[in-house]
Amino acid sequence: MENETNLIELVRASTRTRSIRKVVFSSPRSADCPYSRVDVRPILIDGSTHLQFTSQTATQQFHKNYGWQEAETELVRLATISFRNVHLTTTTHTIEAKYSKKGKCLLRQTQVETAAPGPASEITSHNRARNHLIQDGVVCPFLVETGVMSASGKVHASHSKKFRQINRFLEFILDVAEKLPKDRTLRVVDFGCGKSYLTFATHYLLTQVLQRNCHIVGLDRRADVVETCNRIVDRLSLSNLTFEVGDIAGYKPEKDVDVVISLHACDTATDFALAQAVQWNASVILAVPCCQHELYQYLQETALPPLTHFGIIRERFASMATDSLRTSLLSAVGYQTQLLEFIETEHTPKNLLIRAVLRKSQLGDAAQADTALQEVASFAAQLGVPRLTLERKLIEQGSLKESLW
Known about the structure:
This protein is of the alpha/beta class. Helix content is about 35%, strand content about 25%. It is elongated. Residues about 115-120 have low confidence and may be disordered.
């Protein structure tokens, strides 16, 4: 048992020196082990380094964060009781241990040839994602079910763009997660969820990574898509995630909605989603507009020449102008709003995401609202266009005062 003793010493030493970069436990010792694999990595939580344990079953992942002292005990337990294979990577060495069926431990230790960066540069922040929150090579059940990953955790080449898109979207949510209510179950509505890659991803982030209680509803008009998504929910035994046939106009939530998601809602459907989110007083709005035709039909060729002389340029300008007006209108009704690049333009020209966070302080809101409305009025006057759908909806529901222009 000398090798096992050496393994325990190496695990304890790497924990106490905080030199761990990654640990993988695989091949359970018995059928009673609830997990098929456990991955461990350092993360930052509120400025302090912890170790995050990601435990994998056939259909689910579970995350638990430990301080270094607690982690040491858990690492030793996993290495000596639960799993046959241990792969430990530190800043200086790679340690591999394998147990035979008779319990004999084979241990190999190799030195890292090139000095690896210290743990501080490798750590993924729990507060702001600098690396992918979902890692290629680590099985993520909902990505397997939706066809993005293989059963072994490898991202399919045909879905690599979708994989990056999912991680990028999760970063956008993670950046504003602290703005969400902390004293109750979060409620999320995704309008036009489609195949629901991002709906499942949002559920994963809130429940598994951030360990928040939440209830998420995905709405889509296509019954076959909704049925497929609900089957995935059942197979993965996901709680508080449901999909329903419906649209923006017909959905009536039982309780307050905290997050509204609207991705690629065509033309003015985005405006209806934004207006509904404002009416619900949602804390966070995430929208990726699509096919903005409304302004284009009003935009005259004589407006801002030569920018509007050519159809393709006029169309692109109309899209950008529409989203700019949307952000100003959201600012006018109490939101801090940003336009962010969602995914590289080489993949799709529809790459802008509107992220709006409800301002908690009322200080200066009236002045900001007036300034935003003046900007909208001035811009619309320059273009010679009437009020667009979002402004009309906000006025109709009483969220926005009617400006005179």
